[in-house]
Design a protein that fits this description.
Elements (H helix, E strand, L loop, with lengths): L2 H32 L4 H19 L2 H5 L8
Helix pairs in contact: 1-2
Membrane topology: Multi-pass membrane protein
Keywords: Cell membrane, Membrane, Transmembrane, Transmembrane helix
Subcellular location: Cell membrane
């Protein structure tokens, strides 16, 4: 297996893990909403979900890591 194939598998695995994490957080967010938890909890979950999307799907982490083709 060459480096490119290994890198693609790693990216797929990371994408699936983030997707499952977002799904779990969405379920928690729904449950917190119907259970009438404080709004602060819902905001915290929403900010965590937004951070995951920005960090992984918008590839912001690559900007801080020159080994991954970033600009740092």
């Amino acid at each position: 297996m060459d480096a490119m194939e290994t890198s693609k598998k790693k990216e797929w695995r990371t994408g699936v893990q983030v997707f499952l994490g977002l799904a779990a957080l969405t379920g928690l967010e729904y449950w917190a909403g119907v259970s009438e938890w404080p709004a602060f909890t819902l905001w915290a979950i929403a900010i965590l979900k937004a951070a995951l999307v920005v960090w992984f799907f918008m590839h912001i982490r690559r900007l801080t890591n020159p080994e991954e083709g970033g600009h740092a």
